[in-house]
């Protein structure tokens, strides 16, 4: 019979909350075990220095998720206003072009439009 190799998956660098949650669970077990903990030596010292920060790391993650939701909401509201403004700006552009006429289009710059009246460069002949 073939030997089954046991695997213990660890959170990768893209799974920050997974790493924090696992570390917090390990820390809780370590604290509960106290002197009987199997985590010893320098690893114990390093882990005990990190342990109290784990809860705040999880809180930062929760805050980041909430801010992402707020950010998405703000972008959605911005896009809604921009989508309503775009056709009106196009209509204003046409109206101003009609008002100023072809020879005075530079006056649209006073309204915030960028007017580029430089001639196009001639196309190079194809070989």
Architecture overview:
It is a single chain. The chain is an all-alpha fold and 127 residues long. It has 2 helices and no strands. α1 (16-33) packs antiparallel against α2. The radius of gyration is 31 Å and the shape is elongated. The chain starts with 15 loop residues before the first helix and ends in a 27-residue tail after the last helix. The model has no long low-confidence stretch (mean pLDDT 93).
Task: Please give the structural blueprint.
Blueprint: H1 16-33, H2 41-100
Distance between the termini: 71 Å
Q: Average pLDDT, to the nearest integer?
A: 93
Structural class: mainly alpha
Assign a percent range to the helix content: 55-70%
The helix tally amounts to 2
Order of secondary-structure elements: HH
* Biggest β-sheet description: none
What is the strand tally?
0
